[in-house]
Structures are given as C-alpha cells and as structure tokens.
Amino acid sequence: MSKRKNFYDDDYIPYKDQKEKSDVNTGNPHDIFEYLTARVYKQDEYCKDAAMVLYQHAKGITSRNFVCGPAGSGKTYVYECIRDIWPDTVIVNAANISADGWSGGNKATDFLDRLDPSGKPAIVVFDEFDKLASPKFAKTGENVSASIQSEFLKMVEGDVITVGGRRGEPRRVFDTSKMSFVFCGSFSERALGIADTMNESGFGFGREKHIHKAYENRLTISDIIDAGVIPELASRATRLTNVVPLSVEDYKYLLTEHSGSPLKKLEQTYKMKFIIDDGKLEKIAVSAFESGLGVRNAAAALQRLIDDRIFANFDPDGHGEDAQDPDTLVL
After folding, report:
1. For the domain that residue 274 is a member of, what is the CATH number?
2. Average model confidence (pLDDT) for the chain?
3. Taking the model in full, what pTM does it have?
4. 273 and 231, same structural domain?
C-alpha cells in the first residue's frame, strides 16, 4: 500500500484533483453520480438527473431538461463539472439572447460558433432561462419572449442548422437532434408567488401558523409555464429537477468541511493549514446565503481574507506573529 501524502508535500495531488485526473466512465451513471457528489453538496437528486443526462447522451439518447432552484444553489456548477468529463458541453447565458432578425444581442443559435460539427454531440445548457422566458412585449403587442422560445422549439425538436458560408467562412452544418438541452432558471417570482398563496390560504387554528418559504414547494411544469415558458417547449421536457435551497449552516459546511470545500482547496494550494474564526466564517456564509451569489462568491471572500492575513503577517526575516508555526495561519 502506498504511503498517504500530506497536503504540504510537493507531489501531493488533492482528492478533488485526483478525481478529475481519473477517467470517469460515462457508460456508468453511478460513476458519473459519484464524481458529481464529490463536488456538489446536498443536491443528490440533481446529481442523479445530471448523471443520467450525460449517461444517456453518451449512448446517443438525447433529452430536454428543465432545472429550477434559487440562485447560488449550484444549478450551473453541476454542468461545469459535467463539462470536465464531456468537453462538448456548452453553457450559454440565455438572458442576453434576442429574437432572430432583431438588431443587437446574441441569437439563440450563436452557441454553435463554439462547437465543432465533427466533434461529439453537445450538451447545451441555457442558464438564466427564466429571465428569457419572462413575458416581454413589443409596442405592437407581440410577446417577444415567446417568439424567441419558438426558435428554441425548432432546435429541441431537431433541426439542421448551417453556420458560416459567407465571405469565405467555412460552411458548418449542425444536426440539433443529436444534442441534449438543459434549461436552468431560478423562477424566483413563481416560487415566491406559491409561498405567498400558501401563506394566505393557510390555517392556524389553535397552533402556530407555518410560514411557507420560496422553493419549499416543488415547482412543476405548470409553474414554469405560468412563469412564461411556452407550453410547446415545456411539454417536451424529459425531466424537471428542483434544486434544494441551501441554508447558512450548509454554506458553512461547504466552505470548510465538504470534500470540495474552497478552504481545503486553498490549503492545498498554499500548502498551509488555515484556521478561520467562527465569526468570520458566519459572516461569509450569511453573505453567500443572503446575496444568492453562492459558494464561488464565498470562496472569493475567503481568498481575500487569506491574502489580507498573509500580507499583514509577512516578515522577510521570518519573525511574523505566526512564525512559530509557519504551516498554520489563523484567519
């Protein structure tokens, strides 16, 4: 048995990176699921559904998927992890897409510029899709959002799209019937509306009334249609996944204890042990929770805290306040 390496050894490979460097078998959904849950906390249902999306896609079985959940809960991050093992995964900000024929903005098919038609079939993730779907009306009364979604409808049904061919550009042809699509969004207004309705109609005779919160009730296909997704597109969904909201305690665990925690990754990068004050950890976790910016924003806050501490403690003669234990830094 090989000797276990310490994180401060020069040839140490972090657990998270060991998993990235190994070959994940896309022909085994359990293998994909294990890979995802090592990186994503408290979203086992979502990881299972995403594992099945990739497993079936790799076998040539395409799907159309909707993902609902609050900001900062990992909706996009799961497919960033999928992209590590299936590089032909494209993540598109759908909020910036405008109707075909309109000036300005990105178009629904612009993501094809990032693909090679001779490569593997792509998994295409449209993030912030709820912002695109929210009804927006032109002066003529036309629902522009519905018009844009009609272009998506052609893609998910399977269309042959030609890109380029002008001004000497190479002509590239894509068959979208071989692509899988994922539409992610918070659908927060609908989630808040459901909670308000439950609170208004709730009963509290003789006992404390339960206060319903957004996302406490799972969103359904009917809910995303009410939020603006056209029925023709919503009805073609292979699956709809609800992502679990995270609490302040969840963020604290994610930041410091989870196998993919930012603090552990920073320890591995700096080859030092970091000890964070409970109050500072609470402040960072509360900020991540209340802002909805998620773990990545909290990780940036940790990085700034470490940078400030290293700068304040630096002593070229090695006589800083932590000099007695150069492998440990109290934040």
Report:
1. 1.10.8
2. 84
3. 0.81
4. no
- With contact defined as beta carbons under 8 Å apart, do 327 and 272 qualify? yes
Instruction: Write the pLDDT tens digit of every residue in 236-252.
Output: 999 999 998 888 898 89
Task: Flag the least confident range among 193-207, 274-288, 312-326.
Answer: 312-326
**Per this entry, what is the length of the chain?**
331
Give yes or no for residue 186 having a pLDDT over 70.
yes
Residue 312 backbone phi and psi in degrees, to 5: -65, -30
Q: Looking at the structure, do residues 94 and 156 belong to the same domain, yes or no?
A: yes
Q: How many CA atoms lie within 13 A of 143 on its CB side?
A: 11
160 shares a domain with 209: yes
- How many angstroms separate the CA atoms of 143 and 54, rounded? 34
DSSP state of 71: T
Q: Which residues pair with 125 in a beta bridge?
A: 91, 182
Residue 313 lies in a domain: yes
Between the alpha carbon of residue 199 and those of residues 188, 192, 212, 238, 290, the distances in Å are: 16, 11, 6, 31, 22
Q: What is the number of structural domains in the chain? A: 2
Range of the domain at 255: 248-330
Burial of residue 60, with CB atoms counted within 10 A of its CB: 0-12 exposed, 13-18 middle, 19 or more buried: exposed
